[in-house]
Design brief:
alpha/beta, Aspartate Aminotransferase, domain 2, 11 helices, 421 residues, single chain
């Protein structure tokens, strides 16, 4: 810790004392989720031979089958599709949307605007062919209530005979609204199913796995998707994504990964399955380490005079910590300071740039072992008002603290942070 100013180290000690109760509560959730994952491994008799890879078509891959059965049991569903060939969370979500929706159907997003990379998938931004709109699927968007919960009255009014799917994004994405709690998601799903039981309630669970004791599929979600380089990969999965839910819906999504008729029956895994099994096993612990780091960052920046959401003592439903920094210069300095305390590419200086799927320039920091991994420590955000940086991940609580202190130190060195010693 010699790299940091003495006054900053004193603040660190004070923050650690102030967050001790909040950190303790997180440990109880980790214990519950780790027991749940372990039960699924034992039930499915995971063995060393399940770790080996396959080639070619990947028929009769026992490791793949065991991995998908473990995922299904962890999330309490009939079936799972867990594949390295799913390239991102956006890809997994798009598989669900295109697998289920047909021309003339309607998609309702019940949690306000979707994450930036889904705008072109739906067709509400851009002119590229192949969006849902291009295929004749209509779209409605329901704004959240002022307190960040789902507006159930507006949702009830929006549902019609052509509504086929209601999509719920659990995480905040690039917005200041809170992550939706599992209880809030439960209430919305119960409402939708009370109106029409055949409407598919789909949840984008990215950044939310193992943050609470329950998952959306435990409270009625028909289908759910996420990324393996986020929470459920535990920082070990080198790639991939998953879908879990009702068997017929998972099968429909699988046809968008491969083709109708072969669906989930193919897909070789030449690198084997060990990292995916081991990552899932470690995920409850790694998620808790990330959450402890987010609590530390929230309290530290609050003590320095910045607005943060959620607050350090708030109940959480995703791993993302939003820090309202108020200027592009602070966002860039934060990312450069954080990058200096990364285990990979610590010598690199992040620069704002455009990225595929985003409408604004984005600044990103993340010296990660897996490219783009957001369960490893990183921070990013679009360079637009009110200049919010989104911190997420961290394989170790200690590393998150060092990275965040490095960000503060960089802001201070550049004259972007005032502190009365």
């Amino acid at each position: 810790m010699d790299e940091f100013e003495p006054w900053l180290l004193k603040i660190k000690q004070k923050v650690e004392q102030e967050i001790s109760d909040a950190v303790g509560r997180l440990q109880e959730i980790e214990d519950y989720n780790h027991a749940k994952v372990l039960r699924a491994f034992k039930k499915n008799r995971v063995s060393e031979y399940h770790f080996h890879g396959t080639t070619g078509y990947g028929y009769h891959d026992s490791g793949r089958a065991a991995l998908e059965n473990v995922f299904a049991d962890v999330f309490g569903t009939e079936k799972a599709l867990v594949r390295a060939q799913i390239v991102s969370g956006t890809h997994a979500i798009a598989m669900a949307l295109f697998g289920i929706l047909r021309p003339g159907d309607e998609l309702i997003c019940a949690a306000g605007a979707p994450y930036d990379t889904l705008e072109e998938v739906i067709g509400i931004r851009g002119q590229k062919a192949g969006s849902l709109r291009d295929w004749g699927v209509s779209y409605q968007e329901i704004a959240l209530n002022n307190d960040g919960t789902i507006d159930e009255h507006a949702l009830r009014q929006a549902i019609s005979e052509k509504t086929k799917m209601v999509s719920i994004q659990r995480s905040r994405g690039y917005s200041l609204r809170p992550a939706l709690t599992v209880n809030n998601i439960r209430s919305a799903i119960e409402l939708v199913h009370s109106i029409r039981a055949d409407i598919v309630c789909f949840v984008d669970n990215c950044y939310g796995e193992f943050v609470e004791c329950l998952e959306p599929t435990d409270v009625g979600a028909d289908l759910m998707a996420g990324s393996l380089i986020k929470n459920p990969g535990g920082g070990l999965a080198p790639m991939g994504g998953y879908l879990v839910g009702r068997a017929n819906l998972v099968d429909l999504a699988a046809t968008r990964l491969t083709a109708p008729g072969i669906a989930a029956e193919v897909g070789a895994s030449p690198i084997g399955h060990r990292l995916l099994f081991q990552g899932l096993y470690m995920a409850p612990h790694v998620v808790t380490e990330a959450l402890k780091g987010a609590v530390f960052a929230a309290k530290l920046f609050s003590n320095l005079g910045f607005d943060t959401t959620p607050g350090y003592a708030a109940c959480r439903s995703d791993i993302i910590q939003a820090l309202i920094l108020g200027s592009e210069e602070r966002m860039v300095a934060f990312c450069r300071g954080l990058q200096k305390f990364s285990p990979v590419d610590s010598h690199v200086s992040p620069e704002p740039s455009g990225m595929p799927g985003y409408s604004d320039r984005v600044i990103m920091a993340g010296g990660t072992f897996v490219q783009g991994s957001t369960i490893e420590l990183g921070a990013d955000g679009p360079l637009r008002e009110p200049f919010v940086l989104y911190l997420q991940g961290g394989l170790a609580h200690s590393h998150v603290k060092m990275g965040v202190l490095g960000a503060v130190q960089e802001m201070y060195n550049r004259g972007l942070l005032e502190y009365k010693k």
